[in-house]
């Protein structure tokens, strides 16, 4: 997850078997994107910027 106008996303790197998080970001008046990856094969999904407010 990251803010649209932040240079670096918060770090939540690790291997999780069922659930990762929560991870939070302070984003007033900004948009965020979020997503994740799964192993094996490293299938990656990212939402695109949304949740603007």
Question: How would you characterize the overall build of this protein?
Answer:
There is one protein chain. The protein is mostly beta strands and 53 residues long. The protein has one domain. It is built from no helices and four strands. The chain has strands spanning 2-3, 32-33, 35-38, 43-46. The mean pLDDT is 76.
Q: How would you briefly describe this protein structure?
A:
This protein has about 55 residues and is mainly β.
Unreliable runs, pLDDT <50, ≥5 residues? none
- Report the sheet with the most strands, covering strand number, pairing sense and barrel closure: 2 strands, antiparallel
Structural class from helices and strands?
mainly beta
* Basic shape: elongated
Proportion of residues in β-strands = 15-25%
The strands making up the biggest β-sheet line up spatially as 1-2
Span between termini: 15 Å
| Count of spatially separate domains | 1
Helical content, roughly? Answer: under 10%
Average pLDDT score: 76
SSE layout:
Elements: E1 2-3, E2 32-33, E3 35-38, E4 43-46
Antiparallel strand pairs: 1-2, 3-4
Essential attributes:
53 residues; mainly beta; two-stranded antiparallel sheet
